[in-house]
Amino acid sequence: MPERFGALILVTTFGCLRWSEVVALQRCDVDPSAGTVRVRQAFVEHRGTADPRPAKIAGERADRRPAQGDSAY
To answer: Of 21, 33, 67, 68, whose CB neighbour count within 10 A is largest?
Structure first.
């Protein structure tokens, strides 16, 4: 697997995000200092085009990740 996909795989797996939510993430959605990823939108494919839409969940959600030294994972 190419190294550039590492963060994508980790966020998808441990963040329990849908594929459409992961591919719609933007840099402004990630806050490394707080350890959070905000899910604001998801890409929806309709008639061959992918458009960003609000995520299926009610409103935004923030997924909190433990600090790197945390033994929770």
So the answer is: 21
